[in-house]
Design brief:
about 250 residues, mainly alpha, 9 helices
């Protein structure tokens, strides 16, 4: 897929634009994830699709546990910063899991106990981590720089499925979707412009175009549906209360 040495060399010679692009992407990621936590707590619903929580956690844990690779084997400043960034994301994903256990059972499996549902969540997390490690073993992505494209690509797909199943945008917000859309723009723009040739392949660029386009479209959908729902709620609240007169 790419050479680790070549990619790190590219980072060293394009330090300023790469740091700028990824710093802005990290800000967007944090804003989006924190917004998801807040919306989930307010509406008592899962905001980030459960599949994404499983997948993102497996990906980020895989990065975090490879501490030796980043701090000893490669011993490169960028990979150390990358480790810190994914550690912060992993901690927020633990909050997603806690919210999934707390709010997900009633919507997804109301007929089983809270303990059984929590057990299924844990089982799913373990299975996804095993599946990710298998996938990682057959990928040529030594520095975890191509795989974030898959995690970003998964959000609009799973998010659209979640909205279709719910038949609403409950648990969603414009801030969540706008943040991940802009994050995707910064991620692909930076990697396509400054990383090795693989990151300019039609497959990688196509994934970026789809992710940005689909996430942007879902931002618009959420904005419009939220506006309609707010207007409908206000209309109901504004209706005069009828007074029954006894005859």
């Amino acid at each position: 897929m790419y050479s680790a040495r070549e990619l790190l060399h590219k980072i060293d010679i394009h330090t300023a634009p790469i740091l700028t692009g990824f710093s802005l992407a990290m800000v967007c990621q944090t804003v989006g994830m924190v917004a998801a936590v807040r919306v989930s707590a307010r509406e008592r619903l899962i905001s980030i699709p459960l599949f994404c929580t499983f997948f993102w956690f497996a990906h980020d844990v895989g990065t975090v546990v490879r501490f030796h690779d980043w701090f000893s084997k490669y011993h490169h400043w960028f990979m150390k910063l990358y480790w810190v960034g994914l550690l912060s994301a992993m901690l927020l994903e633990l909050v997603f899991f806690a919210q999934a256990i707390r709010y997900g059972r009633e919507e997804l499996m109301p007929d089983i106990s809270e303990r059984a549902f929590a057990g299924l969540i844990v089982l799913g997390a373990i299975g996804t981590n095993i599946a990710w490690e298998f996938l990682k073993a057959v990928m040529g992505d030594p520095l975890y720089q191509a795989s974030p494209a898959l995690t970003l690509l998964s959000l609009p797909i799973a998010g659209a499925a979640l909205m279709i199943r719910r038949r609403s945008v409950a648990g969603q917000s414009v801030v969540i979707w706008a943040s991940f859309t802009v994050l995707s723009v910064f991620w692909w723009a930076t990697t396509v412009a400054f990383y090795p040739s693989f990151f300019r392949s039609w497959e990688y660029i196509s994934a970026g175009v789809f992710t940005i386009g689909a996430s942007g479209a879902l931002t618009v959908v959420v904005a419009k549906r939220k506006t309609r729902e707010t207007a409908a709620t206000q209309a109901v609240s504004a209706r005069p209360v009828g007074i029954a007169v006894a005859t």
